[in-house]
Write a structure and sequence with these properties.
single chain; alpha/beta; Rossmann fold; 3 domains; four-stranded mixed sheet; 49% helix; 10% strand; transport; metal-binding; iron; 4 iron, 4 sulfur cluster binding; repeat
């Protein structure tokens, strides 16, 4: 099931009408917000962590081109083969070449939103390569032929009955049960055998350290470690913005990520991968590849304000606190990255012509900005993108694909007329005089809204006249 951002409004209406979906999200969001609140029970500590994390991300992004070159050099020195992909097509071609060069037909994947971004599973299926998701949430949505509805918890939109129904349909020998432990063990039993037979392991990257050429992977289930250790070949893929300058930059970001995402002080597993298996080592892959994906990120980087979008560490806290996301879920957005962060990232990845409705799907309450662990000013960026969707790019700015896609001649005429009226005191007074006397002609369905409202009284004198009089 693949929704489309162009159909956001009907998809949102369908989600709002789904009572079971809304109940699933209500319980999950309340739980995650409580967990985060407990993890950040000291306001001073929270502010210190957020300040430091923001400073690290901004420093690293300011040096992004240099750090990427340093990362590449150190990865190569460690034995990691580095590949650059400008877009999804190039990234999928790189995966195809690597896997086919080893005669591979099965890849097991750890959790990776960037692989979702390039639609890796579908692309590999066309080449006769099967990609099996090993993250439990990803495995569940893969069985249901769905996409993740949350960047941290892909199957958060499903309850245990729905998961049990999926297993009963797709897992041979499964006896229907609502016992959560049994459901988890069923998934693990299926996946464990696949690790041993897979030709390739695929993973994402949470932090790529330029100083040491190290790939850091954060997880809770151990599947990421299995994917990157058991198969003979490991392919990691990440967006170019995930690079950090020093190994010392990782602990503060790690702390901010885990507390904000799942309310944990630390996750169960933290993997640091610095190269393939050495001659004297007993486990690990014989080859490690790193795919660095651009896919619109350079466009965001080129603009000093929009560059703040790339500070994101993919914790999902903004989604958990967003009054829109918590009611409609992730699928309604029709994008890989839903919720507030998706509204500001997706226009760079997909263009404003496809995503023009997303920046307006916000109350601008500011909750997303208040909980962001790296202090991305999401409300301000949403307003900027609303402007970009309707206006020509600023002189010298790198335009977004689909710039001015939401422009409306009618809206432009209305605002020009309003601007004209507010600049002409006599015209403004005439309009407000008419509005107070002709409001009875307003359609009856608007009556309750207008009954206790009147147009402002026309000013006796303009501000300019008052200032002139004051300065005499």
């Amino acid at each position: 099931m693949h929704n489309q951002p162009q159909l956001f409004h009907p998809q949102a209406e369908a989600a709002l009408a789904d009572k079971e979906l809304r109940a699933n999200f209500r319980g999950a969001m309340d739980y995650l917000r409580d967990k985060r609140k407990t993890a950040f029970d000291d306001a001073a500590e929270e502010n210190a962590i957020r300040d430091r994390s923001e400073a690290i991300r901004q420093r690293c992004l300011s040096k992004l081109p240099e750090l990427l070159e340093q990362l590449e050099a150190n990865c190569i020195a460690n034995g990691i083969r580095v590949h650059w992909a400008e877009n999804a097509e190039q990234a999928n071609a790189i995966f195809t070449d690597i896997i086919q060069s080893h005669g591979g037909t099965l890849a097991v994947k750890g959790k990776s939103m960037v692989s979702e971004e390039i639609e890796l599973n579908a692309a590999m299926a066309k080449e006769g390569i099967s990609c099996l998701e090993s993250d439990m949430g990803e495995y569940i949505v893969q069985l249901g032929q769905e996409t993740p509805s949350h960047i941290i918890m892909p199957a958060i939109h499903k309850n245990k009955r729905q998961v049990a129904d999926l297993f009963a349909e797709h897992v041979p020998g499964f006896e229907h049960t609502l016992d959560v432990d049994t459901l988890i063990q069923t998934g693990r039993r299926v996946l464990r055998e696949k690790y041993r037979t897979a030709d390739v392991g695929v993973s994402g990257v949470n932090f790529a350290v330029a100083e040491t050429g190290t790939l850091c992977l954060v997880e809770n289930e151990g599947n990421g470690r299995m994917c990157t250790t058991v198969p003979e070949v490991h392919i990691a893929i990440t967006g170019i913005e995930k690079v950090v300058e020093f190994l010392a930059d990782v602990p503060p970001l790690f702390s901010a990520l885990t507390r904000s995402a799942t309310g944990q002080m630390i996750t169960t597993y933290f993997n640091m991968i610095s190269g393939p298996r050495k001659d004297d080592e007993l486990d690990g892959p014989k080859e490690v590849h790193l795919v660095l994906l651009d896919n619109g990120r350079s466009q965001a980087f080129a603009d000093e304000e929009l560059r703040k979008t790339l500070q994101c560490i993919r914790c999902g806290a903004c989604m958990n606190h967003c009054p829109v996301y918590t009611r409609i879920g992730g699928h309604a957005y029709g994008t890989v990255y839903p919720g507030p962060i998706g509204k500001i990232i997706s226009p760079h990845l997909m263009g404003l012509d496809a995503t023009q409705d997303l920046p307006t799907a916000s109350s601008l309450c500011g909750a997303c900005g208040e909980v962001c662990p790296v202090r991305i000013p999401i409300p301000e960026l949403l307003q900027r993108l609303r402007h970009e969707a309707k206006q020509e790019p600023n002189p010298g700015a790198l335009p977004l694909r689909g710039q001015k896609a939401a422009a409306s001649n009618t809206e432009a005429f209305v605002w020009r007329s309003f601007a004209l009226a507010t600049r002409q005191p006599a015209l403004y007074r005439a309009i407000t005089w008419c509005a107070t006397r002709l409001r009875r002609l307003i359609p009856s369905k608007l009556g309750p809204w207008t009954r206790c409202r009147t147009a402002p009284r026309p000013a006796a004198r303009t501000l300019r006249e008052l200032m002139a009089e004051r300065n005499k």
